[in-house]
Amino acid sequence: MQMGEIVKKQKSRIETLDRPQRSKRVLDKLFTFGAVIGLFIYFSFTARNFFTARSILTLILQTSTITIMGIGVTFTIITGGIDLSIGSVIALAGTVAVMVAIAGVPIGLSMLIGLLVGVICGALNGLMITRLKLPPFIATLGMMMVARGVALTITNANAWPAPGNFGDLGNKTILGTGPKFPGIPYPVLIMIAVALIFGFILKRTAIGRYTYAVGSNEEAARLSGIKVDRVKMICYIFSGLLSALVGIILASRMVTSQPNSAVGYELNAIAASVIGGTSTLGGVGTVSGAVIGSFIIGILTVGLTMQGANYFMQQIVIGLVVIGAVSVDKLKGRR
Amino acid sequence: MTTRNGNSNHDVILEVRNVSKSYPGVKALDRVSFDLRRGEVHALVGENGAGKTTLMKILSGVFEAEEGEILYKGESISFTDVTQASKAGIAIIYQELNLIPHLSVAANIFIGREPRTRFGTLDEKKMNTETKKILGRLNITLDPTTLINQLPVSKQQMVEIAKAISFESEVLIMDEPTSALTESEIDELFSIIQNLRDDGVAIIYISHRLEELNQIADRISIFRDGCWVSTDDYEDIELDEIVNRMVGRKLENKFPPKKNIPTKEKLLEVRNIVRKGVIHDISFDLYQGEILGIAGLMGAGRSELVRAIFGADPIDSGDVYMNNERVSIKSPAEAIKAGIAYLPENRKEEGVAVTMQLDENITMADVPRISRRFGLLSRKQEEEIAQHYVNELLIRTPSVHQVVNHLSGGNQQKVVVSKWLFCNSKILIFDEPTRGIDVGTKYAIYEFIEKLAREGRGVIVISSDLPEVLGLTDRLLVLHEGHLVATLNTAEVTPDEVLNYAAGLGSSNQKQAQVLN
């Protein structure tokens, strides 16, 4: 009887306190999202032609690759790791897909082979980290060099032209109505699909839950029966797969093999993820955050370009945004 | 005025007058007064949340008091940071030690104020000789060049003490100093504390382990819910009375009545487990409805034994049978599937995922159970499950979505327990379940362990707290240096006997051990 009362009392306390806490979290998200909108409005007023269907589509198209990479690397960062091989895997997957297409393999199949290359690179990263117990920084640094080297070797460091319809994926659109609205590019659709699927995996499935658990407390996760090594493998494979996807999109857009492309892209991916609230200490991060982070980078890049700021200026601004975003998170955490 | 008063009988070095401090929503200290004399060990006790730690943090300059006044050597002080306090001679040693693992003993003692040579480089030689002097004064035998991470916790703690002494501290505050020490290490620590006291150092000694206070305390102050309750000479107060004042109600017993009845049904048979150099050929049984204790000194292999059974550490040979069938357990995942749960010793390091929410922690060991079609996790079900355990175990939290980091130690422990209840584990292994947990919560955990056994589960409890092992268990395994030296019926054993076995001395009463073996 008495016990029951205590329980009831406590329960009512929980319900009253639950609401403000939740709305605070929603507010946090709105804040970063608000930053995107704010930037967007700012450039709409200050950069000529920024607010047109055409340039908005260009913006989204350019951002789509950062978003896809950013989502992949978010998984590895949440586990407490990192993936430095993204740029090289992009180049390798793209060149392999182009080279096998040139050799006569059907386009679709050659793209699948490209994706497979990414999966293999990711799996090798995962094996080095879980079996050889290498720090993720070292393992993926090695992979970054090896994958780049392989891409240069198989192409002889040349840009080979791919068969004609290899370029469809990267250049075609749907729902186009003419020059005013050229349609939604396929890569944008791919980005949306990737964000939905991987957001779902991370937030709503067991593997996503395990990803957080491993990053938050690896030993507690292991003692809870979570197969830590398998979780890490999957995360690095995700990152490899999504890098390869970007590689194929880029190769398709250029319709050539580009062994020298995407150098340093992993840093943009990491920046997007971190701006979006992923903690490099592990255990914290979201797909929506990575999306928002990459759009902040994308809008800044495009907006500053249209304002006439040069590339160097963009680098300075984006660098400051990374530092600022993480500082804000830190300050919030301390409060 | 009060100082004069104090001086007339005793030499009061530190006096706290009507000090208050609030956190959002909580009054952590409510007009607290208390005084500390030179050359005394002043025990400070109270449940978690009683305000002890807050007071210590104010004294050592971490927080500032909102109201009231602190007199140190007769002068009103208000430190704004820790350096000021330590320079003035007030040092604090936290439960979690603040040493840098990859640096030497000497480097840690002199960190931030290293002596320099003429050329501006570090004067290692001077640091080492000075360190040796300080250690010598405390009768600690340690090489100043040893790296901290090569020392056991007990020695690390002594380094902390040496560091405090090197500041010529006159007030030393120790927060739960014995929580990670074995009996013999505690004796060593106490003799050091006594030496310091005899040298005139005033020591505030915070502890949950009331039993050990009679060895060390001169006076005792009791706090409850942010208020000062009483200060007495230790001789004048009974242990029961201390506990009553701490909890504010009468605790009839420290342990719940044992109502669980061990059956003859073997839940778990462990046979000839060997992990080279750590566990030597250990066999034992666990019966349904039984609470089995594992006692032994630190380093005796207690945690290692249960970790091996749980699949957390590899074994070299040996078998485990459950319900008369041999089971192969090579990983925690397999152990959990077999129905075994392990609640590790270090909650923060091994038990909870601190950045995750309470509900996510509870379902962590059996996520598939809340999975729906396409692997979708049911948030609603998860919430209900968490709510159920919050109610059942009276977990104090503002919400089931609370990030575990923000919960108190006792509540984190309850979250870990909930996790294993959710898995329907038949065998629960508790490793130091009440370390660093206050008296009231302790009782709740004992009750709960007893209830688990009553419901027909098998429970294994590892504890360094001898009264706890004796008060809680039905049978007792005693380990010594990786060997099982005795299997005892708890009801028939005295604390001395257990200690003798644990120390590897055997027992004067060998017969009893043989009968039970």
Measured as a percent range, the helix fraction of chain A is over 70%
Shape of chain B: globular
Biggest β-sheet of chain B, characterized? Answer: 6 strands, mixed
* Uncertain ranges of chain B: 1-8, 508-517
The tally of domains of chain B stands at: 3
Number of strands of chain A: 2
Helix/strand class of chain A: mainly alpha
Total number of strands of chain B: 20
CATH class of chain A reads Mainly Alpha
| Biggest interface and residues each | A-B, 34 and 43 residues
CATH homologous superfamily identity of the largest domain in chain B: P-loop containing nucleotide triphosphate hydrolases
| Main sheet attributes: strand count, strand direction, barrel closure of chain A | 2 strands, antiparallel
Mean pLDDT of chain A: 88
CATH fold field value of the largest domain in chain B: Rossmann fold
* Architecture (CATH level 2) name of chain A: Orthogonal Bundle
List the helices and strands and how they pair.
The complex is a heterodimer of chains A (335) and B (517).
Chain A: H1 2-46, H2 53-78, H3 86-102, H4 107-130, H5 136-155, H6 168-171, E1 173-174, E2 184-185, H7 186-204, H8 206-216, H9 218-223, H10 228-254, H11 265-275, H12 287-307, H13 311-334
Antiparallel strand pairs in A: 1-2
Helix pairs in contact in A: 1-12, 2-7, 2-8, 2-10, 2-11, 2-12, 3-4, 3-5, 3-10, 4-5, 4-10, 7-8, 8-10, 11-12, 11-13, 12-13
Chain B: H1 2-9, E1 12-23, E2 26-37, E3 41-45, H2 52-59, E4 67-72, E5 75-77, H3 82-88, E6 90-93, H4 105-109, H5 124-137, H6 153-166, E7 171-175, H7 183-198, E8 202-206, E9 219-224, E10 227-233, H8 239-247, E11 266-275, E12 279-287, E13 291-296, H9 302-309, E14 317-322, E15 325-327, H10 332-338, E16 340-343, H11 347-351, H12 358-362, H13 379-392, H14 409-422, E17 427-431, H15 439-454, E18 458-462, H16 466-472, E19 475-480, E20 483-489, H17 495-502, H18 510-516
Parallel strand pairs in B: 3-8, 3-9, 6-7, 7-8, 13-18, 13-19, 16-17, 17-18
Antiparallel strand pairs in B: 1-2, 1-4, 4-5, 9-10, 11-12, 11-14, 14-15, 19-20
